[in-house]
Amino acid sequence: MIVKSLTSRGMRTRAALLRAGREAFDEHGYDTVRIDDVCARAGVSHGTFYTYFDSKESLFAEVAGAAMGEMFAASVVGPSAPADPYARIEAANRLYLRAWSANSRLMRTLEHAATADDRFGRLLMELREVFVRRGADGVRRLQEQGLADPTLDPRLTAVMLGGMVEHFAHVWLDLGEQADEETAVDHLTRLWARAIGLTPPSSTDARSSVLEEDA
Amino acid sequence: MIVKSLTSRGMRTRAALLRAGREAFDEHGYDTVRIDDVCARAGVSHGTFYTYFDSKESLFAEVAGAAMGEMFAASVVGPSAPADPYARIEAANRLYLRAWSANSRLMRTLEHAATADDRFGRLLMELREVFVRRGADGVRRLQEQGLADPTLDPRLTAVMLGGMVEHFAHVWLDLGEQADEETAVDHLTRLWARAIGLTPPSSTDARSSVLEEDA
Amino acid sequence: MIVKSLTSRGMRTRAALLRAGREAFDEHGYDTVRIDDVCARAGVSHGTFYTYFDSKESLFAEVAGAAMGEMFAASVVGPSAPADPYARIEAANRLYLRAWSANSRLMRTLEHAATADDRFGRLLMELREVFVRRGADGVRRLQEQGLADPTLDPRLTAVMLGGMVEHFAHVWLDLGEQADEETAVDHLTRLWARAIGLTPPSSTDARSSVLEEDA
Amino acid sequence: MIVKSLTSRGMRTRAALLRAGREAFDEHGYDTVRIDDVCARAGVSHGTFYTYFDSKESLFAEVAGAAMGEMFAASVVGPSAPADPYARIEAANRLYLRAWSANSRLMRTLEHAATADDRFGRLLMELREVFVRRGADGVRRLQEQGLADPTLDPRLTAVMLGGMVEHFAHVWLDLGEQADEETAVDHLTRLWARAIGLTPPSSTDARSSVLEEDA
DNA sequence: AATGAATGAGTTTTCATTCAT
DNA sequence: AATGAATGAAAACTCATTCAT
């Protein structure tokens, strides 16, 4: 589907469909959503849908792609991040939780769609890989600096601890596990840091710690 | 649907449908599976299906219920388990991975079905709660014995570390992350133990403490 | 679509759909016919249609195939045919007109469907080829016996004169050109015979020659 | 739809649509063609279509009407035609084949459209009638001059032999039957002439007779 | 005049479920 | 008990046509 020269009205409609689709997928998953639901939500007739998208699948691909982009962008610990390893881990965890808070349901839906459609499976694999690599690099760096247990496999460790954060995000945001963000971030960070053998913040008494992250 | 007095032939047919359903849900998720698929797999006509089940939903409820039972039973660290806390954690992790290896896909499917149907949502909640409580009890006991960081919230910690194991099981079994069981169990256990501040094995001879209790 | 073990009831339904389809295609061509029309005519729900056929296309393929078979079978000048060349031509023309009277509309429809779907195009080509070859063989044989103009190209002649008969059948049966069968057959035969230079009946006693061979 | 005073730009657009429609109908028949196809081909938006035509049907009516006009005009054996009957038949056949070579597909489409829409049926009837009458007149004249078998029914003969030419044009042009024009015209003419009992050329000097008259 | 966004009636197709045998 | 034929409610998708700009 080649969408040519959209007028501003067309762009508005397309955006409305995208937004409606995102909401619908968020609330009802993939299979359950009917094109008509999306159209009703966007306030257009179902005929109009096909002016902008080929199928439900292609709408979802776009919605999911955008969400993945957001996830990715939102979880980058920028260069202005603290130098202290512990603080960096904390910043990363906080960012990750926040990124998930906007996209958690959709990511689950994507994961489910992946079961039925390889295309989405591949999309998801790529995203995971980026995160895993990033985590593994972090672990490896700490090991090289003598700050983390050198006998741990960096990738495996990243998969496991990254999974801990991801899974918690899901449980917390989607399944309603009670916790306030501060406590959650604090626990995740302490568990993560200690798990790899990172000595808690300052060599003195590690009670609180923390610095902030970048946007 | 009240199925009364099944003849042995009837029981065989019912079992075949159950098995076929389990396989089908495992391979294709929930929405995608058609009753006809299940019947074909079980070698019965679709008419027969309704002799034993009310609907696809009720078949799935039964399949999922059975899987949850298995999961639950399989992950109990029995009385013959070691007394050493570290060894107990290790045993629990190993059991957990094994239990998941048989039910991982189905659990994902159940989780997905929960999105669409509250009934499954509640089922899943209960299962989670059992595991979380068990984990939290374990952490609390270690804290009481002075073997684990007393400032950690037991429930939150159990949610997070339990999630780590569960998520890894998924990544490992469903998404094809490479790792052999020994290494996986070893890493999970080390990360878990150190995360809560449990001094690695050898050091002390842990006399009593437990992480897992029998059901 | 593999139709397995049809019960007699199933066979009846299938036959009803086939008959209904045949009628509908006869009356309304291909594109205009809706599956529901066929079902209504057959007195079954549209769901039932798909128990027996994959699509409108596959129904038509079967209907058309059957019609072609009939056409073919019906137009064979059997061994009991007269030996006299002129009489043979006459017999062939009469048979051909009769075969067309049952299938004319459908053949037009098939020809039209061929425009849109290559599959039908190929089907039609084959049918034509059989008739053309038969006709050409007949002409050639008469030429060899010195009964027909030897300078005519047998195939081209068969295409043209065969076309004359076919086209007349269409005009007569579908477009309502008035003529009684006797006169029509008589004219077609005289035109055909004289066109190839065959001396009209009586004159010589043609012992053997043939225009048509048995299948 | 009354289109009043078209500007030259309007006329250009209209002509473009007509040309595009003609091409599209030629290639894809009637039902298959979408208004959008025509518009795309003409390089205008689909909205514009309705400035010039009421519907697909009315576009086709115009396209078909024009084609019929061409057919008719092109097949007139003008006053400069030879006086010799055989030569006149030959000229008529050649003209007919040529006229068909430009309109063959469209005529088939028209014939098919006639199945669905009476309006086109009537249009077609009229065209046929003109040709048939012309042919019948020609035959009658030859009979009156003692050059053709007087026992033949003029109309029926014209229908049959005219059909031979028409059908051959279709087979040759649309279905790919191989033949070069010279041979085709030669065969058609010989078959036609001999069929009605017209003594081949040379023999006598046919002074007057005509098969075709100017419109 | 031209554009292209919007509409919605019309069709095909799927599949859970019922029912006669 | 088992079968498989029949049903019909959904849902996706197409496309001629209208209309605001």
TrEMBL record, chains A, B, C, D:
GO terms for biological process: negative regulation of DNA-templated transcription. Keywords: DNA-binding, Transcription, Transcription regulation. Signal peptide: none annotated. PROSITE patterns: HTH_TETR_2. It holds the Pfam family TetR_N. Residues 11-71 form the HTH tetR-type domain. GO terms for molecular function: DNA-binding transcription factor activity; transcription cis-regulatory region binding. Residues 34-53 bind DNA. InterPro entries: Homeodomain-like_sf (IPR009057), HTH-type_TetR-like_transc_reg (IPR050109), HTH_TetR (IPR001647), Tet_transcr_reg_TetR-rel_C_sf (IPR036271). PANTHER family: HTH-TYPE TRANSCRIPTIONAL REGULATOR BETI, HTH-TYPE TRANSCRIPTIONAL REGULATOR RUTR. This is TetR family transcriptional regulator. The lineage of its organism: Bacteria, Bacillati, Actinomycetota, Actinomycetes, Streptosporangiales.
